[in-house]
Specification:
The protein is built from 12 helices and 2 strands; from the N terminus they run ααααββαααααααα. By secondary structure, the protein is mainly α. The chain has a two-stranded antiparallel ribbon with strand order 1-2. The longest helix is centred in the C-terminal third of the chain and has 30 residues.
């Protein structure tokens, strides 16, 4: 527990101390958010110019402290690889958005995510020789390696994009991610055998995100950007894979599922019937159109995310009891 608390405090402190100087650098370099009205309500134009790419500082802090605390091993290597690999394409997207107002194409972004996901999935499957999936409340179910890799790739890409879709309101993605990372931190600690280094990485990321929220709470002084949203989303899925409890992710990351699901349903409905289900998607914009304040939506989504995380831990414990 000392190592976990140390990781949380160190990452939180580093982000809080370094962020003011980093914000000055972003402003001086012209890394301000360009708001595209087709992706959000008109009143979000007030966010134009808010420094973006805040996630880059978090990634650097997490990687540096992982080395400092000697928390890099075969398990955490895959998590950090996914974090770094997907954050790179996110950083390029943020840079391009700040310079031109248009980021890289969705297809290019997806291809990069799939590439990193395949590398991560193959590495994890071969290193841990996973030949089964832990089904919640059931236990281990045998699965062919190629099917396991397929599930892993889909999970990584889906979670990365799900977190990115959630990143539309001040504090929304950062806060919901904190609960998800803490949930997997607990699971890693209680796993058999325990995965202390995985738990330390989860603590580092959770602490860094809390530090980021200090500056991202409404009205936000900085935006995490694709650098952080895509990278930490991918790393979260890899953490689920490494712990062996990836099928708990839809519950632990319930907000990311709902946000992604709202977009999928909206697109399908428009194409099939010509009608919209929601006033605007992702769904947090729907509630904005209904008149909810930005802070109301954020805090209520945090509550749902926290409940999802708690339920995820409860289901993990119940599933472990079934397999005992």
């Amino acid at each position: 527990m000392i190592a976990i608390v140390q990781a949380l405090v160190l990452s939180f402190g580093c982000v809080c101390l370094l962020m003011p100087a980093y914000l000055r650098l972003l402003r001086h370099s012209g890394f301000g958010k360009r708001v595209r009205r087709e992706f959000g309500p008109d009143w979000h134009i007030v966010k134009e110019g808010t420094p973006t790419m805040g996630g880059l500082l978090l990634v650097v802090v997490v990687l540096a402290l992982s080395l400092l605390l000697d928390a890099v091993d075969a398990s955490t290597y895959a998590i950090l690889l996914a974090l770094l690999g997907v954050s790179l394409v996110g950083a390029f997207d943020d840079w391009l958005n700040a310079r031109t107002g248009i980021g890289i194409s969705a297809r290019q972004k997806l291809l990069w995510q799939i590439g990193v996901s395949i590398i991560s999935a193959v590495y994890i499957q071969q290193h841990f020789a996973f030949a089964s999936l832990v089904v919640p409340l059931v236990g281990e179910v045998p699965i062919a390696p190629i099917l396991w890799i397929t599930v892993a790739v889909v999970a990584i890409v889906a979670t990365s994009n799900g977190v990115n879709l959630t990143d539309g309101l001040d504090g929304l993605s950062g806060g919901t991610m904190v609960f998800a990372w803490i949930s997997y931190m607990v699971i890693a600690l209680l796993n058999a055998p325990g995965q202390l280094n995985v738990a330390i990485i989860c603590a580092l990321i959770a602490g860094a995100l809390v530090g980021f929220l200090w500056f991202n709470i409404h009205p936000a002084s900085v935006i995490i950007g694709d650098t952080g949203a895509l990278g930490f989303g991918a790393a979260l899925a890899v953490t689920g894979l490494v712990t062996g409890h990836i099928l708990l992710l839809p519950l632990i990351g319930i907000i990311f599922v709902v946000e992604t699901g709202s977009v999928i349903l909206q697109v399908a409905s428009v194409k099939l019937t010509g009608r919209r289900i929601f006033l605007f998607t992702p769904i947090h914009h729907h509630f904005e159109r209904l008149g909810w304040a930005e802070t109301q939506i954020t805090f209520r989504f945090w509550v749902i995310g926290a409940i999802g995380g708690i339920l995820g831990i409860v289901v993990f414990l119940a599933t472990r009891g079934v397999g005992a």
